[in-house]
Amino acid sequence: MSTNDEDLALATRALSGDEQAANAIYGLRPQLVSYLISKGAPSGNVAEDVVADFLGECFGAYERSVRATTNRRLEMYKGKGPLIAWLKRSCWHKFIEITRGPPIGPLPVDGDELDSIDIRPNPVRRAGTDRANRCGAGIRLFRT
Question: Domain 3-100 adopts which CATH fold?
Answer without folding.
Answer: Rna Polymerase Sigma Factor; Chain: A (1.10.1740)
